[in-house]
Amino acid sequence: MKKEIFALILLAVLAAGSAMHLIFLRRVTADVTGLLDGAYRTAEASDWESAEALAEQADEKWHSADAYMHIFIRHPETDSTADAFYDFLGSFYHRDMAELRKTYLAVKAHVANIYEMEKITPGSIF
Amino acid sequence: MAIVILRTIIVFIAIVAAMRLMGKRQLGELELSELCVAVLISNMAAHPLQDIGIPLLNGLVPIAVLLCCEILISFLSLKSEKFRTALFGKPCVVIRSGQICQDEMKKNRFSLDELCEQLRRKDITDLSKVSYAVLETDGTLSAVLNASQQPVTAEDAGISKSEHGLPLSLICDGKLQKNHLERAGKTAEWLEGELRKRNITRTADVYYMSVDECGDIYIAVKDGEK
Question: What is the side-by-side order of every strand in the sheet holding B130-135?
């Protein structure tokens, strides 16, 4: 009976762990997306310095979860998101709104994908 | 991670169902769920090893989930006969009173060649000698010979034989098995005496020595020591 109880507990722990993982991902991606949106809106208002500061905050927030992402998310996905962040930050140096929009949409899509990929939907299961 | 868990459970159920539908012939000695776990684990563990882009957890979590599934299925099959029958099926009698049950053979997609092959593995070459044959849930065949073909036992011959019990190994490759010596109720002095009787001075010279419950001793001396 001990083994069966252990199996049930292990399954429950895994289920709880995966629920916590989803909650963490949703929070991180929502925070990062909020900062990215703020950076883009501020840049639209031509306040490039504040926009860049917000973009760097978003980048720091994302990289603070880097180790976690590499443990739980497929590495190509995390690496491509990191690349998208570099492109987004790079576009601030040129101060070109068209380029910024392109890189902003790309990084936002990458961040959103990380959560969407892990979210339980019929599409993601099958 | 949740997707990995759900996918593992779905794939496990799908493989169990598929193997169940394939019938007993596919199993060989493993039980159905054990075979599925063996098949899945070997595949799942390999992926993160081959592709370093996949987190190791994606390989470890399915293994943990499969282990839990296997333990819970074993428990449920132990507790519920209905569950056991649904999952593993029932043993099928393929030869009854010397007659081959052709319907059962067809139902299990068990050919005559396979029946003969499995019987030959039991040293039975003549079908007419078999009284009953049962295809077990793990795919193996059990056979009962006709009464006239069964080997004569001591009881049949009216001979009384003493029970020898399980022989205990006392020396393995020159090493004394102290726990077996105690379990056999013997002492080191007794062992030395027995060895001396056979002109053996050291336990290290003995390859194997055992004693059964009647006190019968078997000794094999190491090749170079003869």
Answer: B99-100, B92-96, B130-135, B141-145
